[in-house]
Each structure stands twice: as C-alpha cells, then as structure tokens.
What does this fold into?
Amino acid sequence: MRKGIYPGSFDPFTNGHLDIIVRAASLCDKLYVAAARNGTKEPLFTLGERLEILKECCQGNGSIEVVTFDGLLADFCIKNGISSIIRGLRATADYEYEHAIALMNRRLAPQVETVFLMADAENSFISSTIVKEVARNGGDVSSFVPPAVVSQLKSKFS
Amino acid sequence: MRKGIYPGSFDPFTNGHLDIIVRAASLCDKLYVAAARNGTKEPLFTLGERLEILKECCQGNGSIEVVTFDGLLADFCIKNGISSIIRGLRATADYEYEHAIALMNRRLAPQVETVFLMADAENSFISSTIVKEVARNGGDVSSFVPPAVVSQLKSKFS
Amino acid sequence: MRKGIYPGSFDPFTNGHLDIIVRAASLCDKLYVAAARNGTKEPLFTLGERLEILKECCQGNGSIEVVTFDGLLADFCIKNGISSIIRGLRATADYEYEHAIALMNRRLAPQVETVFLMADAENSFISSTIVKEVARNGGDVSSFVPPAVVSQLKSKFS
Amino acid sequence: MRKGIYPGSFDPFTNGHLDIIVRAASLCDKLYVAAARNGTKEPLFTLGERLEILKECCQGNGSIEVVTFDGLLADFCIKNGISSIIRGLRATADYEYEHAIALMNRRLAPQVETVFLMADAENSFISSTIVKEVARNGGDVSSFVPPAVVSQLKSKFS
Amino acid sequence: MRKGIYPGSFDPFTNGHLDIIVRAASLCDKLYVAAARNGTKEPLFTLGERLEILKECCQGNGSIEVVTFDGLLADFCIKNGISSIIRGLRATADYEYEHAIALMNRRLAPQVETVFLMADAENSFISSTIVKEVARNGGDVSSFVPPAVVSQLKSKFS
Amino acid sequence: MRKGIYPGSFDPFTNGHLDIIVRAASLCDKLYVAAARNGTKEPLFTLGERLEILKECCQGNGSIEVVTFDGLLADFCIKNGISSIIRGLRATADYEYEHAIALMNRRLAPQVETVFLMADAENSFISSTIVKEVARNGGDVSSFVPPAVVSQLKSKFS
It folds into this structure.
C-alpha cells in the first residue's frame, strides 16, 4: 500500500489546496493531509479551526485522513510508513524553496520521495496570503476558497 | 478620459518610483498616485509623512493626484472609474508576485487592466528596502531618492 | 491620439495573442498589430498566411490595423507616431528577455514606452511553439487557437 | 495497477536520468521509459542507439519497459492506460517549460497526471547538452553517464 | 596585497559558509570573515556566540581574520583597503537580491568589486534558515554544520 | 602569481564585455581573454575578426593577453596554471546556465575556481544577440559596442 502525505499550513485552506488533494489522492492508496501545528509565523486561524475545515472539505473520500504532527515531517513519514510527500507548485519562487526542502528531506529520510504536482492554471494565482489580504479588505473570496472558509474569514475580519 | 492609478507603500519614495510616475502619466489623462494606508508590515514613515513627500514630488504636473484609500484597490478603481493599475517591475521576483496580484485583480475587477512598466536600468537596483538599509547605516542615499526624502531619512535615523 | 503597437511573429496566432490584442485595444485610440517580416528563425507560416489570419481575427474592431514592417521596431514607432509598444508576458523566462528588449528600445527611442500586460491564467501555457508541437503530432488545438488557425495547421501537417 | 511513463530524448542518457528512473519506478507498478522518436532538433544518437542504451541500463528491473512512440504523449498515455507522466526538474528554467507542457497535457488528457521529481543535488548540473559539449572537447564524462554511454560518446567524437 | 571580505549573519554558520570561505581564501592574500552586528531580524545566536564559532572554524588559516563591524559594509571596505566583497550564491532567488546589493555597493564604493562564488552542488540546499528549522524540530543537522554548531543548536533548542 | 581567464564567443565584443575585462584585470596578475574557436552555433564573425577586435580593445593593458584555444576550458586552465575562470552575469537565465557550467568545471578541474561578476546596471540589457539584431535592422549600436565593432557590423550588414 502506497501512503502519501500532503503537508501545509492551510491558513486558510484554498481551492488550490483542494485541487492538489484530489489529484494526490489518485496517486496513493492512502493520503494524509497534515496541518502543521506550529510554524515560525503566527497563523490567522488556530490549529483547531484549520483541522475542522480540512475534515469538512475532505470528508467523503475514505482514503484521506486529516492529521497534525509535531516535529520533523521526515520523522512522521518514517514512523507511519509514508513513502511520498506531495507538494503543489505554482510560481518559480515556490519552486526554489521547495527544491531546497525536498533535497533536505532526502537527506533526512532517503526512502521518502517528494513528488510535485503543478497548480492548475486557474489556481495559479491563489495563495493563502493573497486570499487573506483580499478578505481583510472586504473583497469577495468565494471563488478562491470553499464556502466554509468564506464564513470563517468573514467572522475573523468583521 | 483614461484614468490610471499607481499604488504603492512608498516607504520611502525613491527615484525609481518617480521615473515610473513620469512615464505612467504620459499613458493616462489622469494619474492617481496612491499610498497604501495600512499594509501588513509596520512602515518606517507615517502615512502623513509619505503623502507629504508624494505631493511635493508630484506637484507641477496637473494630471497627477496624490491619494490614499482604505479597502481593496479593485474597489477603489471601480468607484473612481479607473481603468488601469500601473506597476513597475525590476527583478524576476517582483514579476511573480505582481503576476499573481494582477490575476487576482482581474477576477475582482475584470474591467480594470494592470499595466506594467519596466524599471529603467539605472534604477533597477533601487528599492525602498535597500535605501532604508543604507540610510540606517549612515550611507549617502542622495542619488537614489529625491532631496526631501534624504532629509526625512536623516531625521529618522539621527 | 494615443497609438500603440503589438508586434509579434504570430507563427501561428493563438488565443493568448487575441486576448492581449483585445485588452491592448482598450488602452489605445489606435492599435497596430504588426507581424514581423523576417526573424532569425524560419517560420512555419509565410508572412502572407500570418497577415491573412491576423486580418480575419481583428476585423470588426475599427481601431485595429494589421501591418508588417522592415527594419527596427523603434524606427517604425517614431515614423508613425506610436507612443506605446505592447507586449504580453507569461512566464519568468519571457520576462527577462522582454526586459532586455524593452531597455534597448528605450535607448533607441526614448519617447516610446513599452507596456506589458500579463497573460490571463487560462492562456498562460499557450505558446506558438507548443501549439505547433501539438498540431504536428495530430493533437486537437481548437481550444488554443482561432478556428482559422486550426484549418491552417491541419493543411500544413496533413 | 498504476502505470507511469518517463519520456525524454535521452541524447545521451545520463546518471541524472538513471536516478529519476530508479525513483520513479518505486512510485508505479509499471514504468515505461520512452525515447522520443522525433524531436525538432537533430539528435546526436539515432533512436536505435538510444533505445539500446536504455535497455541495457534498465535491464534487471522487471517493472520497467523501454519503448518509443509516434505522435502525442497524451495519446500514448490514454491508449496504454498510463496515469502518470514523470519528469525530473533541475533548474528554474526547466520548471517553467515543464509547467507549460504539464498544463497543456492536462488539457489534452485530463485523466493523466504529470508528476515531478527534483534532481538530486549531485546531478543538478548534469544535462545531456553539457555532457555532449564536454565529450566533444575530449573531457572525461565517466562520472556523469553510464559506462556504455562513455563508449558511445567516444566512438562518436573520435 | 589583495584583501577580501566575506560578510554574513552566520546565524548559524553552516558547511556551505565554510566551503565558500576555503575557496575565497585562495583568491585573496587576506580574507576578513565578517559577522554582521545588527540586522533587521532578531538572530537566534548572539553576536558573541557567532564570532566564537567563526573563530573556532577558521583557526589554523593564518590569512583569515574574523571581525564584526558597525555601519555600511562599503565604508568598512574603504577604511580597511578591502578590494573584494565575496558572496556565495545558491538559488536564483539569492541571485536577484545579491545583484541589487552588489550594484548598490558599486555606487557606494566604486573601487570595491563584488565577487560571487557558486555554492557547490552538495551544499546547494543548505541554508541557515532550513538548518534552524530542522534543529528546532529535533532533526540531525550534523551533516550540514560544523560539530561546534551542532552543540550550540542542541543547547538552544533543548 | 594569480592567473585568470575570461572566456567567451565575443560575437561581437560589447561594452558589457569590456567592462567585465577591466574589472577582472584588477582581480588577477594576468588575465587571458579567450575567444572560443568553435561553438555549436555558426558565428557572425570569424575567429580572426573576433581576435583582431579583442586585441585592439585590450591593448595598452600589459596584464591582458588575448588567446584562443581548442578543447576543454578546464584543460586549458590546468595546462596554463590558471586558477580563476571569470564570468559576467546579467539576468537570472544567465545565472542558471552558468551555475551548471561552473559546477561541471569544478568536477573537471577542482583546483580552478569560477568567479562571477555582475554586469553593471547600464550594461545589463546589452547582449551580443540583441546588438546583432539591432545592427541587422540598421539601428545605431554605437552606445553598446566599441567603435571598431560598429565598423565591423556595418560592413557585415551593408
């Protein structure tokens, strides 16, 4: 059984993330969607809020499990028999940082392969950062994020 | 009448900004130069200080109006009949972020076109960030910013 | 009256080119669409074939004129009172080459401004080169080029 | 059963290609390694020579089959039930072209996913073009290509 | 006598920095390794801690001197008769920022040349930021930094 | 004695090349300027024509010697005790290709260091390719190349 993991901060979850999850699920027998517990930046949404949205958006697909984890992604992969880390790529700037992280993860866990999927053209300009900026200024983000995230953003910024 | 807008944080205003404004003014019948009220980062100069400099540097050109605005740039354009957002580009890294923002703005206001001008070679390395860093360390920035900004920077860092 | 020019080899003309033309036309009172007579590479379509397609696709918009020219673009702009060169940008690689050309054109004709529009997301992956490659291998290119170009490509590669 | 394909011109086959094949094979139940029959550039090695090397280098792994094909890659995938196209990425320039090709292939065959693996650091500077250039000038390429390719290059350039 | 300087924040010092220092030392008669006293970001290690590590790692090479400085790098170079600033480059993103800084330094001190060395392939993915992230999450960084830095990181994050 | 080499095709020699040579000469006790005998592309100027221009432009600086060579650059460096290969960088696209070549040269001749200088802002858009294109179309290139090259280009294209 091939297990994959799609890690992210999902702050907030966007239609771009959802597209990658659907495509990644077809590459694995089991796909973990993993919200990072603690990053270096202060998130807008709590881990609980982000997990709730992820579970709501991924329910109905039995091969997907929403998780969180402490510590190194590479360690989590080894402990859980995960053979692929899945990452979405949009612009060139993404690419460089992701390349460095992927090479580092190969050193930390040589048996785990990082696999990249390209964002679809229609999602190529959607990032959590830009979505938050639009929502903070009262813009309509309903084309860029799932309905549950629209509500979450509205209550944060009202 | 074609109306354009050149938005920015102008923290501080540089000769690179001035060059784009002069060139942008020739593309529009009326050009708004718009200082962003509130970004995500804490600016070095207050909105008042930045507006004052912009007004001083743009005076004498009757087709230019210095403004500020709250909320979404796309909304401000729609309300004021502005058909073009003008942005200057320097390096590739600028390009990618600006591309994403431009595509987002097309979704928010399809009737507003984002138009890019390339920084001139002699201004290609001048950014507000680098200028602040040089001034903070006591360097001479008089070739990179208008005289009024030299004074402003000196009093901030003395 | 503001005159602009959108130069290209259009070998062949794509929906990406068409999108830029429509948007560029709204920025000018008159827009020249100019097929390059002779480039360094051997084109698939003759200049006559390319002009015919351009005329067919641009007809109905009275402010657009399809032309060709010999010599330097900068000289053509000066002779015809053209104040803006319009270029579409897709990827970062485009950007760098276009930046160099724009800076060179500023030296050759300082009064002519190069103005860049970003390709829309849905056209971001459509280039004449890739379209030719797909058509050469029998693929369906009808979503990427106007109907007249589909026929032209079919007769070239049959 | 998940089938993948790793297409390329392999002119010549390098250690970078071999690394991607080994890693790609672990992601699929069956991996086609496909040498492009005809590209736009004149190859140094004939299709026969390239297939011979591929077969020699891939023998011993029962899940790999070396093939060639005419026409569109997307069509070949559909006909053979292949669900993943695998591509290796080195530098940013690779990334942009590959992104455009991947988006085009999604339009031509939406059920086929393009999956990218990053070149390992030690292979990041090895390209067929640079290897040919070194070999043409009498340099030692034995650290960059399999032994059989060393011999092939020597006889081409002696 | 040619004097060079290799400035950085070294927060922490990595094997990538060490490789550049060794190579840079062969280009100069005297090489200053200069830890920046105060940047805009809060460092993980104090200036004292960083200087101690630098001295330990550079001892034994008589042509290297570890220093710190206040104010502008360009001023420090002029005062000390330094003719070359040495910088290591990894990815494209590095390149752009470094290009702008180098052009600015040419304006501030035209007699000082900025010289770039490319990171070796095996170090291309090692950055202070990624090393800190791995160490913070309990990962083994002993292949990426000198032994003294491994200890320093352990005591910070224990 | 530190020996450096600045290799190129110089087809034709530009003011950008000249700027790099002047700056590189200050880094070495002896600088070889080496015109590549045979590249993969057909040059506009013969090797003899290119060497003549180089000699004319570099005369008067006793530490510079104009040469040509067959075979690998790395071999030429080893045979002549050259410790540094000097390359100029303009845009990001340059950077990536040059990075790969530099890493390859480190493998072929570990004792030879590749050293990069950034093109000055005013030369950042000047490439041999663009200069040829302008000259071919009758444009004035006298700001971009030495006077001798202006004459050479005129006689080629008249």
Summary: The radius of gyration of chain A is 15 Å. Residues 3-126 of chain A form a domain with the Rossmann fold fold (CATH 3.40.50.620).
